[in-house]
Specification:
By secondary structure, this protein is of the alpha+beta class. The chain is 20% helix and 48% strand.
Length: 66
């Protein structure tokens, strides 16, 4: 769990079904922004009540981290 201001950001990762990387996909549901993608053999979901632009910035930083 990460935090931006007073907004929690939940990140979930588990082994993916395939090994192909995918670009992030953004969805919204019940006031939450959900972003998911595949990277390095893992399926990754990020969920928060942040607006999609702010959460997208977090995802870009997280994906770029070594």
């Amino acid at each position: 769990v990460y935090e931006h201001g007073k907004h929690p950001i939940n990140l979930f990762a588990w082994p993916g079904a395939g090994d192909a990387d995918t670009s992030p996909t953004v969805n919204a549901h019940s006031g939450y922004t959900l972003i998911h993608w595949a990277q390095g053999g893992m399926t990754i979901w990020v969920i928060s009540d942040l607006e999609k632009t702010e959460l997208g910035d977090f995802v870009q930083l997280w994906r770029a981290a070594p």
